[in-house]
Specification:
This protein is α/β, with parallel strands linked by helices and 208 residues long. The protein contains eight helices and six strands; from the N terminus they run H-E-H-E-H-E-H-H-E-H-E-E-H-H.
């Protein structure tokens, strides 16, 4: 951060309103303030959930960013809205699932955001659970035991500060602070491979 501050750089954060990204944003605010580093926040509306839910999440992120700004943190928010049906259209075009199509469009938006805002880095909120789910998912898809199949901590301008932290720790932190977060209803949809894996891991841990 000291190096970023010295060169007048900017830090970005992708925030969905979920527990992971909300914790990431709060941590970045506290870390960046002593260095006077502005934080550029982006939230992406995919329009793949009921409109009332997905737009509610966007409004939640707006309120969080407004509240943090009022507390003296230097941050600004960009809302990137995909066209309605864009995810499904790309999925059909490429013969892939909605999850993969949404990810492709989301990262395209991130790349454009990095370039437009001239960011030193864009922080993403993947955690230790995401890493395990990714390794298992890619193993099942034929990636074998290659460690490179996992989520990298740093890739280009993308940085994942929470990759060694478990989701339960993140939620416990927010609960202690009495901070609410949004829950994506598609996280419980086991039509998605990642959700099937996540549910399986949860059940095995619960049984133990």
């Amino acid at each position: 951060l000291n190096n970023i501050s010295a060169c007048g750089g900017l830090v970005g954060a992708a925030v969905s309103g979920g527990a992971d990204s909300l914790s990431l944003l709060l941590a970045l605010c506290n870390l960046c303030r002593p260095y006077n580093i502005p934080i550029k926040v982006i939230t992406v509306n995919h329009f793949i959930r009921p409109e009332s839910e997905t737009c509610s999440d966007v409004e939640f992120v707006k309120k969080i960013c407004d509240s943090l700004s009022d507390q003296g943190f230097n941050l600004s928010l960009t809302v990137h809205e995909l066209k309605k049906g864009q995810v499904a259209s790309l999925a059909r075009e490429k013969g892939i699932g909605n999850e993969a199509a949404a990810r492709e469009l989301r990262y395209k938006a991130f790349e454009e955001f990095i370039a437009q805002k001239k960011l030193s880095c864009l922080c993403l909120a993947h955690n230790k659970n995401d890493q395990l789910e990714t390794l298992l998912m890619r193993f099942l898809q034929g990636a074998g035991t290659d460690s490179k199949a996992g989520i990298p901590q740093i890739r280009g301008h993308f940085v994942r500060p929470l990759l060694a932290i478990e989701r339960s720790q993140i939620e416990e932190y927010l609960n202690q602070k009495k901070i609410k977060w949004c829950t994506d209803s598609t996280n419980s949809d086991t039509n998605y491979l990642r959700n099937k894996i996540s549910f399986s891991i949860f059940i095995r841990c619960w049984i133990r």
